[in-house]
């Protein structure tokens, strides 16, 4: 099972917030990053920074079902 950074662990107690790290370039987030992209790939959440998201926008859109565009 996956959860958002800063969610609860299996015991139900709050976990330490995990800093976001870009899955493409490895850049670390400084605080909350609401503009980062979250993708679920093979059941695992991956986060992408603003720069990587912008540079790869066409590839991201190209993988969406036609219902999304």
From TrEMBL:
Protein name: Uncharacterized protein
């Amino acid at each position: 099972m996956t959860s958002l950074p800063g969610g609860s662990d299996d015991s139900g107690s709050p976990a330490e917030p995990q800093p976001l790290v870009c899955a493409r370039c490895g850049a670390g987030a400084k605080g909350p990053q609401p503009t980062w992209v979250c993708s679920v790939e093979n059941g695992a959440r991956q986060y992408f920074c603003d720069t990587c998201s912008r540079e790869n926008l066409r590839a991201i859109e190209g993988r969406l079902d036609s219902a999304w565009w």
